[in-house]
Structure formats: C-alpha cells, structure tokens
C-alpha cells in the first residue's frame, strides 16, 4: 500500500511514519553528536550522581531534564542535596521507568522504551482522531508537519512530552467516541505527567458540549467522568508528599524554576529584556531571537487558521499555548508547543497549497537538525 494513499482505516500510515522518523533521528543524532561530542556540564551534582558511560545508542537520548527524570525514577523524590531546588517533574513517567526497570535492569533503556512506545501510540491515536474530522490528506500532512517541526526530536528524548502527548490525544479520541470513562482516565494520567494536563478538563468539556450541540438539557450523568481528570494532580501530590511533606509541592517548585503564573505579555517583555542585556554585553541573543520567531509563527498560524478548527481543537490549542506564555519567560517555548497538535492541523490545512507545504519542509527539517545538533552537544538551543 502506498504510504501517501493509505485509507482512513489503515494504521500503516502512522506506524510507517514512526519508523521512518526513528531511523532518521537515530542516524542524524549519531552523526550530529560526533561533530563535537561535548560532555555534560562539569561539577553539577546531578550529572555526577548518574553513570554517563552507558551505551552510546542509549546515552544519546539522555540530555538536560532527562537526568532529573532518571534521578526520580531511581531514587524517588528523595536524595536531593541540601540547598538544591527539586525539579517539578510529575511522577507518572519516572515511576513508569522505575516499574519497567524491574524487568530491563536499566533505567536508561526503560526510559527509551517508554518514550518510543508512547510516541508510536500517540501517532496512531492522532491519525485515528484526525480521520474522524478530516480527509486522509489533512491527517497525513498533520503528521508530517508534526514530525518535521524543529523541536519534535524531543519526542525521542527521555522527556515527558511523548507520554503526555499519547495520553492527551488518546483522551481526545475516546471522548469523541463517547467513551467518557476512558477519556477521564487518560486525562487523569496526563495530569500525573505534566502540570499542563489541567487544560484537558476544559478541552474535554468542550467536546462533550459539541456532542450535545451545546444544548445543556442533553447533558447526562456521564459528564461526571471528567471529574477524574483533576484527581491526577491529587495522585501526584500524594507521591511527592513523601519528599516535601506538603501537598502540591510541584506548584511551588515550578515557582522556584521561574514558572510562576503571570500575564502572557510579561513573558514576552522579559524575553526581550534578557535578549537586550545579552546584546549590550556583546553576545548575540540567539535563544531569545529563536523564541520570538516561534511566537510570531504561532501567532500567525492562529490568526490564519483558528476558525478552521473544531471548537475543542481551538480550545486545546489556545490553552496549550497560554500556559507556557504565562510562565514569566519564554524559556523552552518552542519545545512546549509540540504537544499542541491542532497547530499542525492548521499547517496541514495551509499545506493544501503545495508551495507552502514544500516551503515548510525546506525550512523545518534543516532547523530541526540544527536544534538536534545543539541539544545533543549540550548547548541550549531554545
């Protein structure tokens, strides 16, 4: 079957996309790392606490936040040196790594396995979801735009993005299939993976209202399954309580890491101020410029395509962008937006113009390779 002419009922398309994506990332990652082969920052307690001499094909996918996740997987929310601010990682992903390590005896391998299985399942459910609402051409191009997006290589790293993306998208799919108990469970597990999971309450509620034609008289008791979603935060709080002895400590640690809630424009202003300081000190503010470019691209996509989305897609996209925009600065903004799949639906709709589609490929793929090179060699690309 031709990959680009698969029908809506075939799962071959997302599976083949996943395989092709993995092959390209693995070979590109190995080649790009050998250019410089920089090592982790010297003297950091976390990098010293973990064995960084593992197999090259595994260690390649452990960078930056991965060390925090693997530390929690191995030690729980304990054994953090005095005076060190704990990282606000929620427990589902690291504890899933811990559980699988009981079989693999290697938490690094366990992290790679979970990340890849989650991303493959995410692509399958995203394909099934989009085929409910669009023709197969839009669904295929959405997957292509997602995988070529400059920061999508993070789905291959030991980061929480893959697992959260799978849980959020599968919840969307089951909600549209009117299987609200499963949707509620998916949303609850997503809330145990990333703080941004809270937006799924509002998003799935919009799906429910869509199905009732926004007629409140048609609301049934099955809407109560959405109440499961916030319980994910309660579960996360109970697990972290063993370390902090206070509930919802991940909110406080987020504040310590500069993630306290503020107005969206404050984040933009802070990014501009920081970039100006770099410039005045004779340093080109690469990261600050990159974040602004991504913000402009996203804002343009919203203006041009938001009305073309279903209400639930639009709600998820807007809320998914609002959260990182409201966190004091634009740090990691280009990475955080990869879970906002409606953005790639907009790109797919715009890709009906072949010039836009080919232009997207020409721009996105080299940029992803550049970011991957920076990321693997311990630079901070975004």
Question: Unreliable runs, pLDDT <50, ≥5 residues?
Answer: 81-85
Give the amount of beta strand, in percent.
Answer: under 5%
**H-E string:** HHHHHHHHHHHHHHHHHH
| Total beta strand runs | 0
Overall tally of domains:
1
Q: Which percent bin holds the helix content?
A: 55-70%
Count helical runs: 18
- Alpha-beta content class: mainly alpha
Largest sheet: none
Give the CA-based shape.
globular
Radius of gyration: 21 Å
Mean pLDDT: 84
Taking the alpha carbons of the first and last residues, their distance comes to 39 Å
Offer a concise description of the structure:
65% of the residues lie in helices and 0% in strands.
What do these coordinates show?
The protein is mostly helical and 382 residues long. Helix content is 65%, strand content 0%. It has helices at residues 12-36, 45-49, 56-59, 65-75, 92-104, 107-133, 136-148, 161-176, 180-191, 199-211, 231-244, 249-256, 264-280, 286-305, 311-325, 333-336, 341-350, 354-376. Helix 1 packs parallel to helix 7 (136-148), helix 7 (136-148) crosses helix 17 and helix 10 (199-211) runs antiparallel to helix 15 (311-325). The model is unreliable at 81-85 (pLDDT under 50).
List descriptors.
18 helices, 382 residues, mainly alpha
List the helices and strands and how they pair.
Elements: H1 12-36, H2 45-49, H3 56-59, H4 65-75, H5 92-104, H6 107-133, H7 136-148, H8 161-176, H9 180-191, H10 199-211, H11 231-244, H12 249-256, H13 264-280, H14 286-305, H15 311-325, H16 333-336, H17 341-350, H18 354-376
């Amino acid at each position: 079957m031709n990959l680009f002419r698969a029908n809506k009922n075939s799962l071959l398309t997302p599976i083949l996309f996943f395989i092709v994506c993995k092959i390209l990332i693995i070979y590109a990652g190995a080649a790009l790392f050998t250019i410089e082969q920089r090592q982790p920052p010297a003297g950091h307690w976390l990098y010293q606490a973990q064995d960084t001499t593992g197999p090259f094909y595994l260690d390649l996918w452990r960078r930056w936040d991965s060390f925090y996740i693997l530390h929690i997987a191995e030690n729980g929310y304990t054994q953090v040196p005095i005076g060190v601010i704990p990282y606000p990682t929620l427990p589902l992903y690291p504890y899933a790594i811990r559980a699988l390590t009981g079989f693999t005896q290697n938490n690094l391998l366990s992290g790679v396995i979970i990340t890849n299985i989650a991303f493959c399942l995410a692509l399958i459910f995203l394909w099934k979801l989009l085929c409910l609402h669009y023709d197969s051409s839009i669904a295929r191009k959405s997957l292509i735009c997602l995988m070529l997006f400059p920061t999508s290589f993070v789905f291959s790293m030991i980061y929480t993005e893959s697992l959260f993306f799978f849980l959020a998208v599968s919840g969307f799919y089951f909600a549209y299939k009117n299987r609200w108990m499963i949707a509620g469970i998916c949303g609850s597990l997503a809330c145990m993976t990333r703080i941004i999971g809270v937006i799924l309450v509002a998003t799935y509620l919009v799906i429910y209202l869509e199905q009732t034609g926004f007629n409140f008289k048609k609301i049934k008791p099955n809407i109560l399954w959405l109440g499961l979603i916030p319980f994910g935060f309660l579960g996360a709080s109970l697990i972290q309580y063993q370390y902090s002895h206070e509930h919802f400590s991940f909110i406080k640690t987020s504040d310590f890491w500069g993630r306290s809630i503020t107005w969206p424009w404050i984040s933009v202003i802070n990014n501009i101020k920081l970039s100006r300081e770099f410039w005045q000190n004779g340093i080109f503010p690469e990261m600050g410029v990159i974040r602004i470019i991504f913000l402009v691209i996203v804002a343009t996509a919203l203006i041009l395509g938001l009305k073309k989305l279903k209400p639930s897609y639009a709600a998820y996209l807007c809320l998914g962008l609002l959260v990182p925009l409201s966190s004091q600065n634009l740090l990691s903004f280009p990475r955080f937006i990869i879970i906002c799949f409606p953005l790639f639906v907009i790109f797919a709709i715009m890709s009906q113009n072949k010039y836009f589609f080919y232009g997207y490929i020409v721009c996105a793929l080299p940029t992803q390779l550049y970011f991957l090179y920076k990321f693997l060699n311990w630079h901070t690309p975004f």
